Amino acid sequence: LLAGTAGAAQYIVSDVTYPILVNGQPMAFADVPPVNINGRTLLPLRAVAEAVGVPIEWDEANRRVLITQSEDVPDIEKLKDSCVMLHTGRDGRYTEQGSGVLIDYDEILTVYHAVDEGATLYKAFYDDGREQQLTLVDTAPEKDAAILKSSITTVKPVKIGDSDEVKLGDMVYVISSPNGEKNVVTSGEVIDIATYKGIRVFISDVLTFGGSSGGACFNVNGELVGVLVGGSDDGIYSYITPINDIRRELAA
């Protein structure tokens, strides 16, 4: 890393003195320390991978870093099978796009605002390419949650986790369909617990885009711990409703 200029750009590099937390514990950097460049903290990839228990290798032939899966790390990609892209609309036309996750063999959890505004048409696009018309069966507007029912019952639902166990610094994975791209995996950390539009949420640095609402948020064990309900205007932060709060509201 160099400090200097490139064309008209000015790069300011400084040492990072504040702790970097993973699962609530400060990271140790034995070889390469983190640096702050123009307000962005950059971390060595190997240190991050090792901190979350992901094996990492250097592919000399192709000059690239390989992150490999181990038995102790969930294969998040496989969870895409249990997630869907949603289209909603009315008067014979689909006009809105969102995301959802199977919490039972015939039930898809999504956000209430994806089915609000008079929507009467609901369609799920499964990861295996199948499409299915849905019906709305339950809502919890106070938690921005809704349940849609599908007649496809051969797709395995996700495992529900305990969102009360989620802590600051925990690693989370979100599977959503941003901008019409089905079931994209993004990851980040829980950086705060706050209120968003009157709803208690986890704030994460998972990147969000249009269509991500309703996306499934998983912990490092591959368990569903929340649903993405929105994001900051710049897309840098995401807001995730804890799954326990949603379940309590739906059961009320």
Strand and helix layout:
Blueprint (H helix, E strand, L loop, with lengths): L3 E3 L2 E3 L1 E3 L5 E2 L2 E2 L8 E3 L2 E3 L2 H7 L4 E4 L4 E4 L15 E8 L2 E12 L2 E4 L10 E6 L4 E3 L1 E6 L4 E5 L21 E6 L7 E13 L2 E6 L11 E3 L5 E8 L6 E5 H9 L1
Antiparallel strand pairs: 1-2, 3-6, 4-5, 6-7, 8-9, 10-11, 10-13, 11-12, 12-16, 13-14, 15-16, 17-18, 17-20, 18-19, 19-22, 20-21, 21-22
Describe the structure.
The strands form six sheets. A seven-stranded antiparallel β-sheet has the order 14-13-10-11-12-16-15. A six-stranded antiparallel beta barrel has the order 17-18-19-22-21-20. The chain has helices spanning 45-51, 243-251, and strands spanning 4-6, 9-11, 13-15, 21-22, 25-26, 35-37, 40-42, 56-59, 64-67, 83-90, 93-104, 107-110, 121-126, 131-133, 135-140, 145-149, 171-176, 184-196, 199-204, 216-218, 224-231, 238-242. The model is unreliable at 1-8 (pLDDT under 50). By secondary structure, the protein is mostly beta strands. A hairpin with a 2-residue loop joins strand 1 (4-6) and strand 2. It is built from two helices and 22 strands. Helices cover 6% and strands 44% of the residues.
Order of SSEs: EEEEEEEHEEEEEEEEEEEEEEEH
Report the biggest beta sheet as strand number plus sense, adding barrel if it closes.
7 strands, antiparallel
Helices and strands: which structural class? mainly beta
Please tally the helical runs, counting DSSP H or I stretches of 4 or more residues: 2
Low-confidence regions: 1-8
Distance between the termini: 55 Å
Secondary structure: helix percent = under 10%
**How would the global form be characterised?**
globular
Average the pLDDT over all residues and give the rounded result: 84
* Radius of gyration based on Cα positions: 20 Å
Number of strands: 22
DSSP strand content: 35-45%
Strand order of the largest sheet: 14-13-10-11-12-16-15
